[in-house]
Amino acid sequence: MPIPKRDLPVRHLSDSKSPLRQYQQTVIGSAGLRELLLFECIETFIAPIPTSAGKHLRSGLYPFIIGSCGRKVSFGKNIALTHPYKIQIEDAVHIEDAVTLNIKGENGSIFLKKGCRIKTKAIISCLDHEVYIGTDTIIGEFCRLGCMKGLMIGKNCQIGNGSYIIGASHSYTEPDIPIIEQPVTCRGATIIGDNVHIGENVTIRDGVEIRSGATVADNSLVLHDVMANQHVEGVPARPVKEESDQ
Amino acid sequence: MRRAFYRFLRWCPGALGIFLRQKLFPFYLKSCGHGVLFGRFVDLINARNISLGRGTVISNRAELRAGDHPDKTITIRDNVFIGIATRLDATRGTILLSEGTNIGSDCLLAASKSLVLEKNVLVAAYCEIADSSSISRQGTLQEEGKGLTIGEGTWLGARCRVAAGIDIGSDVVAGAHSVILTDVEDNSVIVGNPASVLRKRILRADANNGR
Question: What's the whole-model pTM score?
Fold first, then answer.
C-alpha cells in the first residue's frame, strides 16, 4: 500500500530576501521549520552514505520528505532534490546516483510510476505543470528532461543516454534586447506514448508528440510530431520507414 | 591538508555545504566576488588561476579546469550561470565568460588559445565549444591562430558544436544541433551541419516569425 500523499500545510513564504528564506523557497518549497530541519538532516546525513547500508537508509527515510513514496523504491547516492514534497513515487522505482529532480515553480510536480528507472546523472527539471514518467520506462544516463507545460512519457519507453527533452525555449523577436532577457516560450506539452524508443543524444523540441511504438534514431533532432510506429532519424528527424505491425 | 579540506567542502551536502563553499572556496581561487553559489562536487583545478565575479552560480558536478601556467586562466565575470556537469577546460588556453552569460548543463567549453564569450551569451545544454579534432576542419586546426569568440547576446541552441578559431558575431541564433565551422556575422540565424545562414534577424521590433 503506497504511503498516502501528505497534505503539506503550505505556508507561503513572504517576500523576505534573507538567504534562509530564499533557500527555503528555492530548495524546499515550504516555509516550515520542521520541513527545513527534516530535509537538511536527511540531505546532510543520509543522502551521501555509500553502499547498501546507505541505500536501505534512504529507502526508509526519504519517504519522510517526498510527497508520496511507494514500496521498494531505491534511491541512489547524492540525489539532488528540490521541492521534494511535490514528487510522487510509486512502487519499485529506481532512482540511481547523482540524479537531479528539480522542481522550480509553485505548481510543478513529478510523478514516477511503478517500476520506472531514472539512470545516473539524469536531470528532470520542472518549471511548471507535471512531469509524468510511465510504468517501467527507463530514462537513460545524463539525460535532461525539461517541462514547462507538461511532459508525459508513457509506459515501457526507453529514453537513450544523453537525450534532451526541451521544456521551454526563448523568444528572440526583439533584436535590441538580449535573448536571455526575453520571454521564455513553450509550444505546448511534450507527449511521448507507450513503447517508444528514443536513441542516444536525441533532442526533442517542446510541444512535440511522439505516438506509441515510434522509434527515434541516435543523434536525431525531433521538431515535429511522430506518428505511431514510425521510425525517424536525422537532423531534423524525418520518417525512414513505417513499421505497421511491431 | 588543504586538499583534504577542499575535498570535504566539495562533498559537503545540504545548506551547510552551500554556506561553507561560499565562504571558503574563495581562498582557493585567484579572486572571487561575493555571493557566489557553488553546488556539490564542483571541481576547481588549478584554482589559483580561476577568477569568479559576484553572483556567479556554479551548479553541481561542474568542472573548472585552469592550466598550470599562470596565463592559462579562467575568468568569469558577474552573474554568470554554469549548468550542471558543465566543463570548462583552459589547460591550453584562456577562457573568459563575460557578464550575464548562461551556460546550460553538460556542456564542454575548451580553449585551445582563447575562448571568449561576451555579455549575455546563452548556451543551451549539451553544447561543445571546443578545440575538438572531431569537428575542426581537416588540416586547418589553428593551434597558433586566432581564438574563438562568441559575440554579445548570441544564443547557441541545444547540442551545438563550435570549432576552434571561429568568430561568432553578436545576436546570432544557432539552431539545435548546428555544427559551426566558419565565422558567423552579427544578427544571423544559422542551422545545420555545417551551419549555414538561414536568414538575418529582422532589425525592426514589429516583425514576428509566428511563434
Answer: 0.90
